[in-house]
Each structure stands twice: as C-alpha cells, then as structure tokens.
Specification:
Length: about 1100
Amino acid sequence: MIKQKDHLATLRQAALAGVALGALLTVPTYALAQEADTAPDADTTPAAETTPVAEKDAKAEDKIVVTGSRIRRSEFTSISPIQVISGEISRDLGLIEADEILRQTSVVLGQQNDIGVSTVLQGGLGQAFTTFGTVTPSLRGLASSVTGRSRTLILVNDRRLGPVGVGGAPANPDVSIIPGSLIQRTDILLDGASSIYGSDAIAGVINYKLRTDVEGLELNAFYDNSQVGENKVTLSAITGMTTDRGHIIIAGEYRNTSGYRRIDRFPKFSPFIDSDFGPQACQPEREINTNTGEVFSGCASFLADFAVFGPLGTVVVTPGTSNIGVPGYSRLGTAPFNGPDSNGTFGSINNPFTRSHPQDQQALVNPKTERLSIYSLGEYDTHLPTDLTAYYELSFAERNLQTNSFGQGVIEVTGNTPFNPGIGGTLLVPLLEFETDQVVNTFRATGGIKGNLNFLEKIGLNNWTYDAYGLFHQSRGINRTFGDLNNINTARVLNGSVDANNQFQCALDESIEGTQPTRRGTGGFTTSVPNCFAVNFFDQQFLTSGRFSDPAANDLILATAIQNTNIEQITGNAFITGDLFDIPGGGTIQAVLGTEYRYDKVSTINDFNQSTPQALASSNPDVGSQGNRYLYEFYGELVLPLIEDKPFVKSLQLELAGRLINEQFFGSGETYQIKGQWKPLDWLQLSAGYGTSFRAPDTGEQFGTGIAFNVNTRSDPCLPSTNVLADIDGDGIIDYDFAADERSARTISLCNQLGVITPQPGDTLAEIQAAAQALGLFGIGTPSGSFQNFAVLRSNAGNTGISPESSNALFLKASIDQPWFDQFSLRASVNYFEYEVNDSIGQLTSGLILSTCINDPNTTVVNGALVGDLCQFQTRSPTTGLITAVNESSFNLGSLTSQGMDINVEFGADLTFVKKLPILDKLSEVPFLGVTYRATRQFQNNEDVSGDGTFDHNLGEFGFAKFQQNITTRLRYKNWTVLHRFTYSSATDSGLAPFGGGNVCRPTLLARDPNADVSGCTEHIILPNVKLHSLTMVYNADVWTLRAGVTNLFNTVPILDTSIPGDGGTGTPFGLGYDADGRNVFFNIARKF
C-alpha cells in the first residue's frame, strides 16, 4: 500500500516550483496530449498491436504521438506505461465496438458498465450513476463497487467525452456512441494522470483516436452472429479531401443489434436445465454435500405461475385442474403440486417450483439497440499572421434502446372484490412485465485555432506554438417504461363499490386516503378517473404475463413512467508550448503552460408517475435532479533532458507536471507528477514515476437523483424480519413463535430502550397481542394472522459538501529493444504499478447503515436515540422507536488499493527459412510472422466500502482475476493475413462463505433437523479458468478488404453452477468483462473509391 510520506512533500514542491519557473519565464509547455495530435501516416501502425518488421529502417515508423506526450515515441520508449491498440487490427479480430476493443486487454479489470450490466440490472449499481444503457470501461479494477464510477478518464481525439444518459444525474460517459469502425487507434495511459488531464484520470486515460487519413470514399459493412442468436449489422461510410491548406472528413456509422433473451442462452449455457420445467434461478449461496454428492441451494421460491397467499395457502394457476374446488387454481404442498418444504424455501435444485418463471425467460439480456453516429472534422490554414490554422470537430450520435424485464406485484383483494372466483380475501402476486424504450442524443462541437509564436525567437525562445479551443457537449435523453401498476387507479378500483343502480363506482380520494399500502392507497388525488370500471384482477393472463385480456384494463391499471434528462458540458482550453534552453551535456528543455475551464449542468425532469412516491407499485421514483457547477485549472509541464550520449547514460530525462484546481463547491486543490527515465544503453530503458491524482465530485454525487421515497419494508433491525406468527401447538390458534425471532438478545434490549417492545415468554395473551401489534404483527389468538410493513423514507440526494477523491500512483518500468539480430525484432517491457485511492465517494445503503449501527458493540441509547457507528444516518419515531427515515446520500468513505505488474512482448520476423522447404520454395514473397504478448499479474485489490477500515479483498473474486493474458499471432503472406488470438483469465470465485461458515452446512438444508450438523459441505460457486480463442482470415488489396472469422472459437462461456446477484438470472457474471454470448461468426467487406 502506498503512503504519502513526508519526504515526498519536498519533491512535490520541486515539481510545482519547476512548473512555476516556466510560468515566470512565460515559456509554457504542453500538458501531455491536450490537443488533437497529428495522426500517424496511413501505413504506420501502432507498436502495441503490430509486430515490428525486421528491417531497421522500418522501426522509425513505429514511433507515433501517443497519449501522454507530444514527443513521438512508442509504448516501449515512453516514460509512462502506455498501450496502443490498432483499430485496424481490432477489426481484423472482429472487435468493432469501442468497449469490445478493450475487453480482451489485460489491464481492464473489475466492474465494467457494459450494456448487459446497465440493462439486465436496470441501471447497474445505482440509478444516479450507471444509468441504464450506458457503457463505461474501467482500468486496474479501480471502479467503485458502490456507485459504478470507473475512475478512468475517457477521451475522444484527446478531448474529454462528457456524461451521457437518462434518469437521475448521469455522470459517466458512454463509449457505445463512438463509431467503432472509424477508430484509428486506442491509446491506454496506465498511470494516474490528473496532473496532465485533470479530474477523473485516477486509474489512467483511454483515448479513442478517430481516423483522419482519408482521401476519397470508403464504404464498410460488418455482420456478426453469436451463439445465442444475436445479430449485429454495422454500416459505415467515410469520405475526405485534402488540399495544400487543409483537410475535411465526413463520416457516418449505423449499427443495429437484435439483442437476445434469457431463454436464448439457457438451452446452450445453463448449468442446470430441467427438460420439463426449464432453467433454475437460485440465490447466491449454493453448497454440495460431498458425502452424498447432492447439490443444495437457497433457491428463491419464484413460483411457476403466480402466487396467492391467503386462507387457502399458496395457490397457483393450474389451467384445467384444481385441488381446492376452484377451477383453474391449485394449492401447493398438496398432491400433485408439491412445492418448497413448509419449513423453508431451501431444497434440492431439482424442485420444479424453484425455477424462474417461464415468462421471465423472455426478458432481454442484451437489449435491442440502434445507433447512428455522424462525425466530421477539418482544419484550414488561413495564411494569417502566426500561421493561424482554424479547426473544428463535430459529432452527433443517437442511441435507441428497447428492453424488458420482469418483477412481481402485490395486490390485496377481499372476498367481495369483483370477479373473485372464491379464493377469499388474499394477496395476488402477478408477474409484471416492464417494457422500456429509450432514446439518447449526444452532440459535440469543437472549434479552435492553433499556430506558431515565432516572434519569441527574438528573445531566444524557439519552436513555440499555441492552441486554444472550446468544446460544447450535450446529451438529451428520454426513457419510457410501461407495465408497472398504477397505484392510484388500482386503489380506486379496489376501493370501489356498487351503487343503488347496481353500477360499479370507483372510489374517490376521500375514501382512499390512508388505506394500507397493499390496497394501493396513496391519497392526494382529487379528480375521478375517466372510464374507471371494475377490473378483473383474477384474469389469468394478467396474473401470468402482466397484461390483461381487456386492453381497456391495461390502459387503466398499467402505467407509463417517463424520464427526461438534459446534460451540458462546456470546456475551454488554451496552452502554449515550446523550447526553453539547452542543458550543457543534455538536451533542450521543453515546457507547457495552459489553463482549462469546465462547466457542468444536469437537469432531469420526470412525469408524475416517475417522480411521485408510491405512484407506481414496483418502480423507484426519481423526483428529478437540477444542478450545475464549474471548475477552472492551471497546468504545466517541464521536460528536462539532463544528460545525453554519455557512457552508460545514453539519456537521462526528468519530467515534472503540476495542476492547480479550483472547484465551485469543494474549493482548491493541487496534483503533481514526477517521472524519470534512464537509458544506460541504446536498447535498455528504465523509468519510474510517482504522482497524485484527484476526482472531483461529479454532478451525480453533488446533485444526485433527488430520490426521496417511502419504502414499505421490515428492514428495521428492531423488527422481526420474518413472520413469527405460527400455530406452534396445533390448536388452530395463531401464536407468537419465540424460536423464530432471529433478533439477538442485545438487539432486543437496545430496541426496548427505544420504546420498541418485544413479547416475552410468560407474558399474558393481552401483553403479547399488544406488543406484537406494535411490531406490525396481527392475529395472535385468532385462526389467522398477518404482518405489515412500515414506510421508511429513503433518500439518496446529492451532497455538495463532499470532498474530492485523491490518489497516489507509483510505477516502475523497464523495457528493451534487442539490437543484436537483424533477422527478427524483439521488444519487451515490464511495468510494476501501485495505486491508492483515498476518500472514495460512495453511498451507504440503508441495510448497511442499519445493520452496522445495531451491531456495533459500542452502540448505546442516549436520550432515546441510538449512538454508534453510522447511527447518525437514521431517524426514528420518538413515539414508537421505529425507523422513519434513512439518509443514503453520497459520502467520503474509505480507500481502495491496486497493485500488480504488466508484461508486454512483441516479436516480428520475416520467415525466410520457409523458402528453403519443399513446395514452399515456390512462394513469390517471404511470409511475415508477428506475435504480441500482453499479461497482467494483479497482486492486490482491496476496497474499504463502508469507510470503517474493514477491507474487502477483491482479488480472486468474480471480475478480479489474479492473472490475465492475451497472445495475438499474425501470419501475413502477400495480401492475405491469418490472425489468432488467445485470451486467458485465471479462476475466480464468489467470495461468499458457505451457509453455516467453515465446512458445515446450515442444518435446515439437510434432513430438516435443527440439531443435525452435517459435515463435508463446501462452497460451490467457482468460475474456472476462462480460455478464449479467435481466428480470422483477412484479404487486403488496393481497394478491397475482406474479413471472415470466429471469435470465441470453442464457444467458451463462463458459467457458474448457480445464479448470483448481478447475473440477471443467467448464471453468468455481467459487467465484469466476461464473454457471455458464446461463439461469434463475423464477416466484413470494405471498398475504397
């Protein structure tokens, strides 16, 4: 773990002083790639993805301007650890989307907000942060597991990509809007770079460089089909023109993705299939009795059809048969419908009633999407003084997304409810389908000028240039979701009555105000609903699919919720760069000085259904977000070539960078970086760097979603979390089951001091009844009982009082470029890295707040309130002692560390020996072989999620493989190239402990004997090594390019032997970089005119 020791303060002061010296001399430098760099020549391929040719004169062309420096260099000669990925070779491998290009790299680790996690999980980790449909990659496993923040800065053509999304206060960029077929290369800067680029560059920088080397017209068509039946079609066109005074490029890309459903995956990838009943969907805990080999799981009792809980027990739809005398309905637990054991929901996974609902298998895993991107750039030499050149960049992207998901509703009916078939008063639990349509438009406009400052040569300052630009970014999104229960109309219907004329009349507000939540009473509405009528809530089509047979009932009872979000970001940046003076025995000092201003604004305005608490039955309300902030920064850099061309010191160079920040709310701050490079020999380079970075609280964390709503729950630890009402003595009368009350004696004691009284053995029936009713338990001493939930106000609005995240980063790097053999080239680099992120910004969930408070051994009751760890974030009623509100706003929490090592190797050779072999001696040209190897060995990834000093050791858990590698092999002969890529990720597991702890199963799992202690049970959630192969054939002529290939050649999909939180019920971890789609076959044709 990195600690910022006192002696580093001296280095920091030296770095900032050096930059200040540059400012005093009015000779600023360039802050590493702050403007759009000149692209490599058309025939120049980045070193990271291209095997170097054997000829010495070709090596010069491997040097390019990469992110992190204006100096032309490759990833093997750069001081900073950099990887450069060729867009052309990525397309050769069938990787066309911006996030796909990164997915198989070894430096991508941990939470990745891909299209799966943001749709299957309905927004990923938090509505305010990873908004639905947004795709954001993350480096080094440094993304927040709480909020989904990637802590990785995303650039397009060297300029910040602003937030994109809809709902809440989106703060993450969306790389899916980048036209993948137009990506020329992707630069990955792998050190903390806030001194160079500003906020967010904690883990590093991903810079997508789009093509500029176009003359004429190019058309491109790309198609791929996955094992799960998903089809993707991409069409693109790009045209350009170059004159002696400038150039202009216009390009467009259209992409259509068909999406796929859960049922499309299960027949191919599900680890547990029942031929009669379909796939299972189980909870994360899953164990195996190694004595018998039988697998057991805490499977969710998500019934095959719908459930009715009432005096008849659990009743499901059974068309054409019945065991209770009500046609079409049967009770579970009575032959022949045997459901989960009455002692609990735990049982063998072979139980058909623990499977996912059949309709739920129609949920889309990947959504249907259409994307249109239009892009143009150009520059023009005005022939004005200072060689002023004007330039622009324009882009527009539209993303249309359609998806669906399923959930359960709860409706309370009585025996008098119209259309009741005779089941009596009960709870209906219908399956609800939520259909979502989303459109997000993103517009970016950049305009700037650049030129020379030759007049400074009069005072001895050479090669000075300037660059200034303004950037406007706007994202507008609308999200419509249909299918949730309209609480208000549902309450009006359920509370309606038949008038004297035998006509059904819906209830008005005065008769509904204050009704129980299960009856959908919300109050506050004063007008009647047009065309309100008696609705058949027992419609079996509604109960099993979420849609009524009567379309009018759908219009009345089912609601549409609408979210509208507008995001704006305005950036202004200006810098000057040039040479200062020569160092005796060294080189020329280069300097940069610049300033940047950024303004962020977010506005989410939603309709009544989306913004009103309890207007909808299942959806969390979003009451809207409004906020804006600004920040301005000054940055500088000095490059000091101290020694050159001396024995054992071919070069010795020092680089200093610093940035001063002032933000509207948190005030001022500073970051710095110190890097050094020593080349003792021409072929050996040693470098190191240390610096600080920061991430300013973004609009989501400062202004939040504005969500503040009542949740009907029993999450209060002062309440029994399960129903403790049971007929324990068999006399037909409901008793208080003291043995079922899982609360500890200490918890009960603390709650009693708050005024929450718990029944005690030996109490009179009246005392037990009174205490139980205060706990929301009713019916003791009667033939039937019920329990109620309590409304708790939960809020996660933003917090403008939080501080920025800060980080320290260290790297040590060694690289070689062998000079001894002309027959082949070999280059290699090893990079050791450490990161420590402090004051990480996250949210404490209500569950964590409540459990931590009550379980803190030091928690006490003072003046009727709990005093202890996190207790200050809850509010309790002074009369009942129960929870009334929990504050889940953004807070500065704990720290996060990441430590590991990267290895990069490139080999290239002309295979001259093959012409000496039989038959092959007829070849007209010598084949070329290139091999690129990349690997990352992670040593540590620890996160203090709650800020209490308790670390979650992520390494080895899902998405945090200890070792990742990929090997790309290219064999080229004339116009033909064959490529193979092998990708490996080491085994991971869930990180969950077995049920009973240690190697002992929970007694209720086996034999249902509370006194049984079954040994030999072990955790059973392991993801083995993931090995992927891809194979491609490419034909590249003067004007034609043809590609055909297979990714994931052997159809390897990471399948767990259970379902886990975050897999969308699919058995595959989403959002962690794994290939969930199986084998893909792709074809590509391109033509130049």
